[in-house]
Amino acid sequence: MNTAIFAFVLAAGIPVTGVRELHREAPWRPGMTVKVMHRFGDVFVRGGAYAKVFLDVVVRSTASSEQAAAAMAGAIDVSLKVTDDTVLVTTLYPDSDLGQDQGYEAHLELKVPRNAGVVVRNSFGNVVVADVAAGGVIQNRFGDVEIAQCRDFEVANRFGNVRVLRSSGAVSVDNRFGDVFLDSVSSQVRVENRYGDVHGEDLDGRVFLSNRLGATNCRHCAGSLALVSRGGEVSAWVEDAGLTDLDVASELGRVHLNFDRLVPFRLEGATHAGKIHSLLPLTIEESGQQRFVSGVLGRGGPTIRLSGAWADFIIQHQPADGKGDKP
Amino acid sequence: MQSEGTKFGSKEELTNEHHTDETLSAYIDRDLDPERVEEVDRHLHGCAECREVLDQLQAIRHAAGNLEQVEPSSATWYAVKRRVSSRPVRFWRWAGAGIAVAAAVLVSVLLRKPSPTAAKYSAVTASGALSSEAAEAGMASEYEEYARGIEEAMEECEAALAENPQSSRVRLAYLTIRSNRSAALDRTASWSGE
Questions:
Q1: Nearest-CA distance from A34 to chain B in Å?
Q2: pTM to 2 decimals?
Q3: Rounded Cα–Cα distance for residues A236 and A248 (Å)
């Protein structure tokens, strides 16, 4: 029976996968940047107490026969070139045209010194960078990007999600066609996203989040927070006096401003062709198509400014546990 | 201020009502008929608040004119292109005015109640007029850009598949983008009321 199945598989031309593993090392000196140029696979970079750059590669190739798959895997290489200030990692794929039953991918795993700068350019795969403290740039397409425990990173991604976790310094994210998640990110944070949602939690410092055609949510934030949105809902929570400034600007998207009951604040806002709903002791006035809201509660607390165009404001007591008054 | 009985008429003829931002914007654009222009002229002559609003609207227009213009692409899906091309010419004047973001678009709203928000965001925005046409132009531009991005991505995936036919990553990306494209077509059609 097994022989019959095996014969059927061969006759059907079901692709066979070839696997090849590579290992490379390169010397590193302080001040050097590790630069990775890759396509068709994932890239993992982990910083640590390493004196060198270590590279492990798993190549997978697909063809109609074992021999063809092995030959294709053998033709794929990853070069490691060292210059004065750079360790350059480049994946080299075969130039020849492939048959419709052929394909390849390579997954790279790098261990680098924690103080190495990191630059990754990748497409059709995911990128994960962790524990790199000297900053870096990630440019990726058609995959997700995650950075964790890193400092001073710039991320540009298309057609995938971006996650930034427990990172600090100057962090900027430019993403399209995907969501952005920020968790425990501090110092200077700038996010420009389109066609996806932005979620921020435990953000501190100077934070600017801009989004189009997607929702924007922020909670447990401190410092100065600015949210700019077009064509999507905005939800922001004011939970304690750690948040010093909150600016929200929304066009064609409802704004939900949620307070913990005991938080003092100072609020002013205006919306054009939108409504303002609130059970809190605020002053709401209107003039033609414009509506204005203002109010002061207690002493201190954040200064909150709302501006909207074709955007309703819902201002309510809504603590993080979800129980509260709804207007 | 002119005395009674002169070119600007009697005090009784001067309106006590402030003009809306839309009226003042149209006044700047010369979009009012002559009688209305005269009425606004008379009011402005005696109303410092409206003159201040007018100055600020003119300043926004000047700033917007100095920003980089974003021209909408003509290469887009039939549904979006058909909808846009059916609009009157005036629509395109605002569609060519650049990307509008709420805070600076709202400068004219906030002029009567000064707010630091408007000043803070004015540097990153373009359009200064609050009108539904401007908002629709902005959203049309957004959807065009969305559509363009999807098309370019599909072309990139097709080229990658030609290079690497059996790549699971490329196939997954291609299928995901095709799904996004269908959803975008539905969204565009529903937004255009078709």
A1: 25
A2: 0.73
A3: 9
Task: Give the chain B residue whose CA is nearest to the CA of A194.
Answer: B146
Its ipTM equals 0.83
As given in the structure block, the two tokens for residue B167 are: 């790549």
pLDDT in tens, A266-300: 999 999 999 999 988 899 999 999 999 999 988 88
Phi and psi at B82, nearest 5°, equal: -65, -45
Taking the Cβ of residue A306 and every Cβ of chain B, the question of whether any pair is shorter than 8 Å is answered with yes
Q: What is the pLDDT of residue A107?
A: 96
User: Looking at the predicted structure, is the pLDDT value of residue B98 above 50?
Assistant: no
Q: Closest residue of B to A253, CA-based? A: B102
Query: Chain B residues with CB inside 8 Å of A273's CB?
Result: 132
Whether the per-residue pLDDT at B21 is higher than 50: the answer is yes
B92's tokens? 């395109």
Write down the mean pLDDT value for chain B.
62
Least confident of A311-315, B47-51, B88-92: B88-92
Q: Residue type for A8, please?
A: F
User: Beta A265-272 vs A290-297: how paired, if at all?
Assistant: antiparallel
How many interchain CB pairs under 8 A, A with B?
143
Alpha-carbon distance of A136 to A69, in angstroms, equals 36
Q: Measured between CB atoms, does B114 come within 8 Å of chain A? A: no
Query: Which residues of A fall within a CB distance of 8 Å from B165?
Result: 98-103
Q: How far is A127 from chain B (nearest CA, A)?
A: 13
Residue B15 is predicted with a pLDDT of 45
Strand partners, A228: A210, A249
Beta strands in A114-197 (DSSP E): 117-123, 127-130, 136-141, 145-148, 153-158, 162-167, 170-176, 180-194
- For residues A98 and A265, what is the distance between their CA atoms, to the nearest angstrom? 64
Residues in B closer than 8 angstroms to A212, CB to CB, are 142
Phi/psi at A159 (5° precision): 60, 60
